Amino acid sequence: MPKNKPKPVKGRDYDSMTGADAVAFGMRQINPDVVAAFPITPQTEIMERFSQFYADGIVDTEMILVESEHSAMSAVVGAAAAGARAMTATAANGLALMWEIVYIAASTRLPIVMNVVNRALSGPINIHCDHSDSMGCRDSGWIQIYSENGQEAYENTIFAVKFAEHPKVRLPVMVCQDGFITSHSVEPINFIHDDKVKQFIGKPKPEFSLLDVDNPITLGPLDLFDYYFEHKRQQIEGMENARKAFLDVAKEFEKTCGRRLQYFEEYSSKDADYVLVVMSSTAGTAKEVVDRLRKQGKKVGLIKPRLFRPFPYEEITKALEGKKAVAVMDRSASFGAQGGPLFLEISSAMLNSAKKPKLCNYIFGLGGRDTSMQDIEKVFEDLMNGKPKALNYLGVRG
Amino acid sequence: MAKKKKLQAVCPVEHGWKTIKPAGITEPGSAEELKTGDWRSQRPIHNMEKCIHCLQCFIFCPDCAIKTTEDGKFKEFDYYHCKGCGICAEICPVKAIDIADESESLEKEKKENKQNAKK
Known about the structure:
The complex is a heterodimer of chains A (about 400) and B (about 120). With about 400 residues, chain A is an alpha/beta fold. In chain A, about 40% of the residues lie in helices and about 20% in strands. A 7-stranded mixed sheet of chain A has the order 3-2-4-5-7-6-12, sandwiched between helices. Chain A has a 6-stranded mixed sheet with strand order 9-11-10-13-14-15, with helices on both faces. Chain A has a two-stranded antiparallel sheet with strand order 1-8. Chain B has a domain at about 35-100: 2-Layer Sandwich (Alpha-Beta Plaits). Chain B is about 25% helix and about 15% strand. Chain B is built from 3 helices and 4 strands. Chain B has a two-stranded antiparallel sheet. Chain B has a two-stranded antiparallel ribbon with strand order 2-3. In chain B, a hairpin with a 5-residue loop joins β2 and β3 (about 75). The mean pLDDT of chain B is about 90. The interface of A and B includes residues 107 and 220 of A.
């Protein structure tokens, strides 16, 4: 087992499968009440595998095969409003088609879990990985968790169910993994036992149910200038609560499932002078580069955010303060902005820090452009030479 | 017909974000409490002498602003909800509904109320 892979947990079984299969396997263990799905590359594999579990009668789920992603999101919103544990999955243009209801799911405070297999948004049409789809809805009110590999995608999915349903949170969660790179690559997955998953997630305890005819309610009524602001303020508070709730749920997860989940992973970064911040699968490549440069005596490190919404700005600031230089790598562009979404997030987190490092941004891997170890080595070299521009594009032909 | 329970808003307007129910949850049917009558710029006025109680106005009213008697006759307008669209006046086959200017009607009402108070 290479050093940069997640450590195996004692008493767990191994199997080889893709990231998408691992998530479907996790969904089987979660056994949601309702799953609505519409195929889209590269998400299709998740639902394909899950519908097999459904067809074989292994899960008790009500599976709804809808006619579009707009309907998929609408169906899980309806199901969650009825008090069901509801899940779906999508990618890129499918997520874009869900857009209207994505916001409604969050503002109606429905604890839906959705796997997003990150894929570049059209156009021109592209089926490969970048983060433009999920980054587009970073202000939609969904919690966002990013996964480096299949192992993390699997664990994050199980974690997300409990996290979303936390009584102080009650917000939908997006669990993101990189399209094809993670979703279609076979790797050893270290599974949690079914009974442990059951024990961890427990039974859903919905705060209200549209099917409760003895206590009828109206959900999502007209909410004009007299109430809307209060509801939004409350929704903001729910997201703020999620920051602490993440740690509480992580503690429970560690107790039951044996792994400690953190806001972000610090990989050789504590004593490093030069730090790279990157999310999802590229962090795996970067870890290998860090290991190699460390062997040469270079003080480099990596920070890999797992939780992007709510953004753990205080903790990230502490982790990056006093570094000589920090490169933030973004797998999506924010047109007309000063950099990619992750860079903007970290820049504003560091705004009032007295020990602010030199910060720069690298946009990379758009549309699935491969990011090699040499590319990442170049970023570290730029940092160590002290001459990076504020905004750089990694691997684009000039 | 049993007397309908008076609906109460779950979250009175003075409630702040800390105590308001999430996601706009209210009791069902609370739209009845919303006073749409104050959107009105003109109001329908009914002439009982001309009225043949065909209830075309009741059928066409886009709100529920025509109140009827238990034996199915026109009773009165519900000015709490009537938005003054004028469809009832348009559809009335015997022209028993007039449309008057809302502000003039309000002035008139005020005067009448004053006079009644003097008496």
